[in-house]
Amino acid sequence: MATFTSFQDTLPDPNNRISRSGGSVNPLGTTAINSRLGPGFTSVKFSAKQPVMMNRTNSGRVITRTIAAHSWDIDITYNNLTREEFEPVFAFLMAKNGRLNPFFINLPQYLTSRDSDFAGQAALGNDLVVNESGGIPAGRTYMKARKAVGAGSFPAVGDMFTITDGSNSNHTKAYMVTRLESTSDFNTSFDSSTNPGGTGPFDVRLHFSPPLVAATSTSSVLDFTAPKIRVIQSNDVTEYSLGVSGLYKFGLKVEEALP
């Protein structure tokens, strides 16, 4: 017997199996009734959208400012699918009622860190944790963090992560690493108060994009293993095409949606 305490909220894919009752299933598990492995993506178009207003003066000076929050846009393409592959995905989306209800997506290119040593440690729960006295204010694009005991290396530039903050469960924004300064490689003039080469039990100064959307508590965990992006469909139409071969042609466009 397979039981669960909540319905799956992640789009079914090879790493997120779903049962007929809507519960999450371990991809290697065999006990769930009529469990289905979601199909993999043929291609993923991934966009970072940051609306900016730009003005140019008569003298040629350029003045810019952001006018809206950053978001990730994702365009997923599937191979032609059999009905067994297609129905679990389509049924999952139908339950979301177009743009009414958000869900999560795991992107295959960001399931683990590009640094294999760090990825192995993160999979064991040895994550980076925020190490800033008093926390970090919203709007910052860097933080100092420390490794858990026994952790090996550091994440790589281009890795994506989310933040588990015990004081703010609504902080679901996904971030991308843009620079990484360690105690042996750091900019001494950037911010002396968070200098990785100074005193204090921290190992890295992590730069990321976009800026923090919410204040973040110290000791919050940075999740680099299978970070989930909270999204909604980009429109209210959920459709497919069925060919004479009996295969389903289907794609999906979503955009990040914060609570």
* Helix content range: under 10%
Low-confidence stretches: 28-32
Strand arrangement, major sheet: 8-9-12-11-10-13
Highest-level CATH class of the largest domain: Alpha Beta
CATH topology of the largest domain: Phosphorylase Kinase, domain 1
Total domain units? 2
Radius of gyration from CA coordinates:
21 Å
Strand residues, percent: 25-35%
Structural class: mainly beta
Largest sheet: 6 strands, antiparallel, barrel
Number of helices: 2
Please state the second-level CATH architecture of the largest domain: 2-Layer Sandwich
Topology order in helix (H) and strand (E) letters: EEEEEEHEHEEEEEEEEEE
Distance between the termini: 34 Å
Number of separate strands: 17
Large-scale geometry: globular
Q: What is the overall pLDDT average?
A: 87
Explain what you see:
The chain has 2 helices and 17 strands. The strands form 5 sheets. The protein has a 6-stranded antiparallel beta barrel with strand order 8-9-12-11-10-13. A 5-stranded antiparallel beta sheet has the order 3-6-17-14-7, with no helix packed on it. It has a two-stranded antiparallel ribbon with strand order 1-2. It has helices at residues 83-95, 116-123, and strands at 17-18, 24-25, 43-49, 52-56, 62-66, 71-77, 103-106, 128-130, 142-147, 160-164, 175-182, 204-209, 221-223, 228-233, 241-242, 248-249, 251-256. With 259 residues, the protein is mainly beta. The protein folds into 2 domains: 17-108 and 229-256, Phosphorylase Kinase, domain 1 (2-Layer Sandwich), CATH 3.30.200.190; 112-225.
